[in-house]
Amino acid sequence: MTTNAVKSYKPTSPAPRSDRARNAPLAAAHVVVGRHPITSKPREAVRLELRGSRKSLRLYAFVRVMTRDGGMAIGHGSTRGSGYHKPSDAAEVAIEAAGYRMNAAFGGHGEAAMHEALRAIAEYNGYTDCTVIAIED
């Protein structure tokens, strides 16, 4: 069980992604795999893609969540600047755009906090035995 948890979920309709964001190089992907709440088979529960080059100041995040009702929640966001953990900040923006509110902010707090939030979203949607797989560039 994680210490950060989903506070609420309200389905949203995210704005379309820009071509610049869509075509940015993949910097990292973080996938949460867990046992599906109905079939108990391993399945991708949450996918977070981080896009942007190491040279650019802007980092884009795209999140896709398989919801407990069989639907999909998607969100995207971006962040820019330096001096803090941009991947977790961009992930927090994307997760909020997908309609999820966490009970604690994790943006800028590092990879462990980001993984904890992703795992909490999967658990909120009924997935069990969740594992975060990180694929770095």
Summarize this entry quickly.
This protein has helices at 19-23, 86-97, 111-124; strands at residues 6-9, 26-35, 42-51, 58-66, 72-80, 100-102, 128-136.
Q: Would you kindly provide a written description of the structure presented here, covering whatever features stand out?
A:
The strands form two sheets. A five-stranded antiparallel sheet has the order 5-4-3-2-7. Helices cover 23% and strands 39% of the residues. The model has no long low-confidence stretch (mean pLDDT 87). The protein is built from three helices and seven strands. The relative contact order is 0.27. It is globular and about 45 Å long. By secondary structure, the protein is an alpha+beta fold. The protein has one domain.
What strand line-up does the widest sheet have? 5-4-3-2-7
Number of DSSP helices? Answer: 3
Percent of residues in helices comes to: 10-25%
Proportion in β-strands:
35-45%
What low-confidence regions span 5 or more consecutive residues with pLDDT below 50?
A: none
SSE series: EHEEEEHEHE
Distance between the termini: 29 Å
How would you state the average pLDDT, rounded?
87
Give a count of the beta strands, DSSP E runs of length 2 or more.
Answer: 7
Number of domains: 1
The shape, in one word, is globular
